[in-house]
């Protein structure tokens, strides 16, 4: 059910406001690393790190590895800290750690439940005895979850990405899953994408075919199944219907499903430029071909067009240029040896209507120190780090040993990004899961991220401490800001989902129009940011108008 617009006029008293010099002139770094002093583990390899207000008290809690949970509590010394809850979340049951967990208020009771999914591949002999375990875990008391009696209607598959959204605006959250290759199938065969339609009492039904998301096993077609390593949602054409963005691995084309308003979707990846860049030659260099000839007896053949795109992991959407529509950044894994037809991470600027992206792969570009470089941009975030009214780009790179790290690119309007990682004090390499939230409610966005030793040589592993980092923003609160938290009335009352996923908040000051959308679990492995719509307002002293468009 579509909800009417809500328009409010706000005075300066509604703002967090301070008078300060521009952030680039501020003394000291923009962020301070405070994980241990705020109660997070001093040593822990955590590949999944997220902020999520699990208990509904409006303060973002921290979840690590889908197991350990740290409640956001008052610090006796002032501010906030995190206090580990005994027993953990209990989401793994008797099996291994889940591969993906999506948190959302499925029963509209004020706290967040969990959709728990596993990387179960029945074609792998080691997993042939496993049964389908994908299921809901209900939060029955603060930080205590109980498994639903029945599993979700999903077969055992290698699920590696998932997200929650409201496809019809009916208030019930729906689930989209993406999965990897079949371990013992053909070289390009992957498990299908699934869309499960949500309903009362936590019910889900398979609506993949009815929604228009069915794909065929045969490789190389526009409608082929492909390994899907990231799932995102956004209303890209401004018609009030959510789109589904699927990030494909294995240099296959990304898929973009345009919402039709009736619960169905139309695929427009190629037509909009989301599928990949223009170079589909698949060409390898003479050096690479000669390397394969010497090692394997024959040169490596160029790739076919359907294998000449990217290894996409994340596609967060945001209004980067403050023009009222949502743009996108595609985070890619790229290797120098793969040649120029392997897509680089890129900013996709929305030039609609009609919906069409202009691709810019110079944003976030690095100067590599070796001709055999790798780039592992698995997680991407948009935040207004200095609250100047323009969104900045945060890349959390890992997986490879050649200078993969957390990088911040400050937007110098309009549309120019300059790396300020060192200035910001973000000294963190080999990143794992990224999450963003104003955990202490001081008016600026903080950063949670992990660290790994993936592919590092033995000598570089020695003495490295693996743990999560909490980078506390100390510069953004020196400018004006506004944070908006929406609570839907729920489908029983004819309203939006309590989490307000898909709601759009637009704000006007005397000089700017700013737009945010509320998004839940998304990207690779279901990473999660705070649900609040956060606005940096620069030097503004008044919000002239604020408009909420409910899903």
Characterization of the model:
The chain has helices at residues 208-211, 269-272, 286-296, 421-424, 458-461; strands at residues 5-8, 31-33, 49-52, 61-64, 68-74, 80-84, 100-104, 113-117, 135-141, 144-147, 159-165, 174-179, 194-198, 204-206, 228-234, 243-248, 255-259, 265-267, 311-314, 317-318, 327-335, 346-350, 357-360, 374-383, 392-397, 406-412, 416-419, 431-437, 446-451, 469-473, 480-484, 504-508, 513-517, 533-538, 545-549. β9 (135-141) and β10 (144-147) form a beta hairpin. It starts with a strand and ends with a strand. It has one domain (31-549): Methylamine Dehydrogenase, Chain H. It is built from 5 helices and 35 strands. Strands 19, 20, 21, 22, 23, 24, 25, 26 and 27 form a 9-stranded antiparallel beta sheet that branches.
Quick description:
With 551 residues, the chain is mainly β.
Multimeric state of these chains? single chain
> Which architecture per CATH?
7 Propeller
List unreliable stretches of 5+ residues.
Answer: 9-15, 17-24
Termini Cα gap: 8 Å
CATH superfamily: YVTN repeat-like/Quinoprotein amine dehydrogenase
CATH class categorisation = Mainly Beta
CATH topology: Methylamine Dehydrogenase, Chain H
User: What share of the residues lie within helices?
Assistant: under 10%
Rg over C-alpha atoms, rounded to the nearest angstrom: 22 Å
Strands, total number: 35
Portion in beta strands: 25-35%
What's the helix count?
A: 5
**Average pLDDT value?**
92
Structural class per helix/strand content? mainly beta
Biggest sheet statistics: 9 strands, antiparallel
């Amino acid at each position: 059910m579509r909800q009417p617009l809500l328009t409010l006029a706000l005075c300066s008293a509604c703002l967090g406001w301070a008078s300060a010099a521009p952030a680039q002139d501020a003394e000291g770094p923009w962020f301070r690393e405070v994980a241990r002093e705020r109660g997070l583990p001093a040593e822990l390899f955590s590949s999944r790190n997220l902020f999520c207000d699990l208990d509904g008290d409006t303060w973002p809690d921290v979840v690590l590895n889908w197991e350990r949970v740290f409640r956001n509590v008052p610090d006796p010394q002032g501010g906030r800290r995190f206090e580990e809850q005994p027993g953990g979340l209990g989401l793994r049951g008797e099996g291994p750690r889940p591969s993906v967990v999506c948190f959302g208020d499925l029963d509209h009771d004020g706290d967040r439940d969990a959709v728990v999914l596993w990387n179960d591949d029945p074609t792998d002999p080691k997993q042939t005895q496993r049964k389908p375990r994908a299921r809901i875990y209900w939060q029955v008391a603060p930080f205590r979850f109980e498994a639903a009696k029945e599993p979700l209607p999903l077969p055992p598959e290698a699920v590696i990405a998932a997200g929650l959204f409201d496809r019809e605006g009916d208030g019930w959250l729906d689930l989209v899953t993406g999965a990897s290759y079949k371990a013992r199938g053909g070289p390009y065969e992957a498990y299908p994408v699934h869309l499960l339609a949500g309903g009362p009492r936590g019910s889900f039904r398979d609506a993949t075919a009815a929604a228009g998301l069915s794909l065929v096993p045969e490789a190389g077609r526009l409608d082929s199944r492909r390994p899907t390593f990231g799932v995102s949602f956004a209303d890209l054409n401004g018609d009030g219907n959510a789109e589904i963005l699927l990030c494909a691995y294995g240099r296959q084309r990304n898929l973009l499903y345009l919402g039709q308003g009736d619960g169905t979707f139309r695929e427009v990846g190629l037509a909009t430029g989301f599928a990949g860049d223009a170079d589909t030659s698949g060409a390898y260099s003479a050096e690479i071909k000669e390397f394969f000839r010497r090692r394997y007896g024959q040169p490596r053949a160029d790739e076919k067009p359907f294998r000449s795109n990217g290894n996409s992991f994340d596609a967060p959407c945001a209004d980067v240029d403050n023009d009222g529509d949502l743009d996108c950044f595609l985070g890619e894994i790229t290797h120098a040896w793969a040649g120029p037809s392997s897509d680089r991470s890129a900013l996709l600027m929305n030039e609609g209507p009609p919906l069409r992206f202009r691709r810019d792969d110079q944003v976030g570009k690095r100067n590599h120190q070796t001709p055999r470089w790798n780039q592992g941009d698995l997680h991407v975030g948009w935040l207004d780090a200095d609250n100047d009214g323009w969104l900045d780009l945060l890349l959390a790179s890992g997986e490879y040993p050649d200078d993969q790290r957390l990088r911040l690119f400050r937007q110098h309007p309009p549309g120019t990004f300059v790396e300020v990682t060192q200035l910001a004090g973000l000294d963190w390499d080999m990143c794992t899961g990224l999450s963003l939230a104003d955990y202490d409610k001081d008016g600026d966005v903080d950063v949670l991220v992990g660290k790994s030793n993936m592919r590092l040589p033995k000598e570089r592993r020695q003495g490295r401490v693996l743990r999560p980092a909490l980078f506390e923003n100390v510069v953004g609160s020196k400018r004006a800001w506004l944070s908006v938290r929406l609570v839907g009335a729920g489908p029983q009352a004819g309203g939006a989902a309590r989490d307000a996923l898909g709601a759009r908040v637009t704000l006007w000051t005397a000089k700017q129009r700013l737009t945010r959308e509320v998004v839940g679990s998304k990207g690779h492995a279901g990473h999660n940011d705070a649900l609040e719509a956060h606005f940096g307002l620069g030097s503004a002293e008044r919000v002239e108008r604020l408009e909420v468009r409910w899903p």
